[in-house]
Amino acid sequence: MEVYTPPAPIYGVNDDVLMCIFMLNGNMFFDSQALHTTRATSQVCRQWRNLTLEAPLLWAKLIDMDICYRDRRLDWINEIFRRSGVAPLWIKAVNGRHIRRTDTDNIEKFIYDIVSKNWDRIQKLVVIDDSTLESRCNLIFPMLRFPAPQLENFTMLRTNHYSDRKIPPIKSLFSTHAPMIRTFRLAYVSVDHQDPWIRQLHTMLLDSAYSIGIALTVLLVTNNLQELEITDITYGDIATSLPIAALPHLKYLKLCGEPTQHYATLLDHMKIPVSCSVIIRMSYRHDHSRNAERRLQIERVFDVFIRRAEGYLKSHKFDAFHLDYKPRDYLTLKLIGKLPVECMLSISIPLYQDLVSMSLDRMYRRNLSSATTFQLRTSGSLSPPSFRSFFERLTSVHTIRVDQISLRYLTSLQSSINAMKKPIIILPHLKVIHVFISDDTHVFTVDEEFFLSRLKKGRPIKMLDISKGLPLTSPPNLNALKLIKGLKVRYKLAQTRGIFEHTCGSGKPANRVEIL
User: Fold this and answer.
1) Element (H, E) at 78
2) What pLDDT score was predicted for residue 121?
3) Alpha-carbon torsion 258, 264, 270, 273, what sign?
4) Cβ atoms of residues 154 and 185 within 8 Å
5) What is the superkingdom listed in this entry's lineage (predicted)?
6) pTM
7) How many Cβ atoms from other residues are within 10 Å of residue 436's Cβ?
8) Confidence of residue 162 (pLDDT cuts 50, 70, 90)
9) How confident is the model at residue 202 (pLDDT cuts 50, 70, 90)?
10) E strand spans, 221-326
């Protein structure tokens, strides 16, 4: 007698719902294996195969050069094109290091054929390469003189520094006709501010192809920008006063480059919303003869950063503060606000001379009392006196997030303060410590004195959570904390599922707890 086996519930799903799932799974910009996933999906059963093969839009968004390079299957791209019909194309090539040198010429010609023969169909073209971008640019640049009726995203970048060779300017990019474009990120080529399509951009890159004056001239007409990245911009010859560029819709601004590139001047001439996230990363150069100039420019940029923070605090508050410190290398400060709109202000600077004191002293004068969460990462001692004063300002912090090394340096700072004539408790309202276990030893050691000194001063820690990151190979040795009565310690073990909680001084074993 035959046994009836009911079909799996997935086979009862409506075709429209299935196609929506297939499209979500087939986004190669979020999943590097999207092409493989879609190909496997088309081979599950006859129903799914018919459904996928009759969906040209699905395949048109999967022109993934990376997989075809890696698998050495350029013929597979031709098959995807056949399945895509006449639908708008998404093309991605972001990993040139997988290409063998002997294949480079054939692959570049293949790319040129694809782009040139399908230019009017391309909706997204993203090339981020670390080896052959220059030659690819030479192949694709001629196409930039033609109209791009469907192009929405044009991104062509390189992961390392470009060669010193200057790329000649291209007049009338896209023959001034790119009505759908919203993202334009082309390295080492400047645009003409008179081209009408730049007025509708939402995302843009400005780099060494622009001087400050030219950049501001372009920004004057890009009022719809939401994301802007500025890197290695040049100072240029500023013979006249600079204009003020208003960017009322900007949500994200990132600036990267040498301190000597006068980013403070640029920021002073940009009018952006108070809730716009601003990320500033100053790079380091081993040219000591210009260190005095660099320090001056870093101070100017830092002052602009402080003004941004003060402007935000007039109507909002920062919920979290992050500090990332590597002695003699860099210092990163990050302020994060969540309501009513999410905003992040971040600055990372190279550490010339006493810039640690300069930075922390300037932050010390600001009102940081609204921050309730503090994240610390350091690879060295928090020895400069300015650290003590700085921590005194974090009066509302009740939760900190650290790794093991950073916690060790934080407890050392408290120990050095305890040895002073007038000791204080840093982070006086601290209640919860989250420790991220990241090393391969999978063990955890704790400083009893840190917790005990706080308990004696009436500032006890309520929770020590070491369940984040890698699990421990064995339960932590908590004998050192038996005098810290009431302290709860949470951890997880490699051989056991779940999270355990131990209450110090209770005399009871750890219990497995449910964390929602």
Assistant:
1) helix 74-84
2) 94
3) positive
4) yes
5) Eukaryota
6) 0.86
7) 18
8) very low
9) very high
10) 227-231, 245-246, 252-257, 270-271, 277-282, 320-326
